[in-house]
Amino acid sequence: MIAVITGDIINSQHADTEVWITKLKNLLEKWGSTPQTWEIYRGDEFQFKCNIDDVFWRFLAIKSLIKSQENLDVRIAIGIGDENFSSEKITESNGSAYVNSGRLLNDLKSDGHTVAIKTSNEPVNRDLNILLKWSSKDFDNWTMATAEIIHEMIMNQDITQEDLAKKFNISQSSISQRLKRANYELIVETNQYFRKKISEL
Asked: In this model, does residue 101 exceed pLDDT 90?
């Protein structure tokens, strides 16, 4: 089984494309090469495949990166399933993971939510989507400053609050307050729960 993330940038027409697209490309390049592992297409849509264990953390890395840009957000559909045809281009690959993710993004566009997951297991879908709806109430309201710090924590889990304080030129207590406001410890627990539920598929 693999995980496929299909997403699109919300409010992309109101932002400097070169800035966000360069940052998104740089992030995706850390995880694999284009166009086999990831691709950006139609201007503001993208697709990316990864290990199922990593998918929640990868989703949050993308979410925090885009939320750290002014006025932007991202819609993300997570599909878990098989890959029965692997093309040189991810957008031409196929399998239940791709179908689940692609169809789900269309559903998200119509229902107003910013993230959802679809697997072949309906009870798992129900449990994880309730979790995602609740947690998105936090994620969708991250300020740019909070999103920046969350992104640094996700991308470098060995980084200390002191390191972050130096990087952002603010006090360590300010870093601590932002992480508390963002419920960072709960985010880490949620990632562990997510991995456990998906491993049961």
From this structure: yes
